[in-house]
Amino acid sequence: MRSKFWMVALAMLALILGGVGILSYAQDSATSTSQTAWHGRHGRGGYLMRELNLSDAQKAQIKQIFQANKTSGLPLMQQMATNKKSMLEATANGNYDQAKIQQLANQQAQLMSQLIVQKQAIQHQIYTQVLTPDQRAKAEQLRAEKIARIESRMQKLTQNSENSSPEQ
After folding, report:
1. Which domain covers residue 97, as residue numbers?
2. What percent of the chain has pLDDT over 70?
3. Crossing angle, helix 98-129 and helix 56-90, to 10 degrees?
4. Which of 48, 59, 97, 127 is deepest in the core (most CB within 10 A)?
5. Cα–Cα dist 136/129, whole Å
6. CA dihedral 134, 130, 48, 57 (to 10 degrees)
7. Residues 37 and 118: beta-carbon distance below 8 Å
């Protein structure tokens, strides 16, 4: 009887701690939506910022750029969330209405396109207004390394598809 009590108590504690973690993550995500445009999935102080060794003044400039762009990015993120919710509702219980799904997919593609354009505009602004020439060179080196990783993955995918294709 005692062990059952402790198992229930531990399970409740795990649920509470998990809920707190999720809430804090959600709160951080909501406040830093536009910041992911430059930092990727690493959030504030992300990989790129560490690699470029930004000064405190540069970090403050970047924060100002994000704040200036937040008003245009937030509605897009809200529309994206609404679109995702609509897609989940449209496909609930195994439903499949191709026309509705196509419409939602087209809307989502348009929103993603707008978000990508905004992200690139923010990156351009940071690149041209904040980074020093040495940091720009480092950023270009990192960009070249990323391109090489993408090309390597594409080559592996091509090789895997050729190896797994049926013999004729």
Report:
1. 2-161
2. 70
3. 180
4. 48
5. 11
6. 100
7. yes
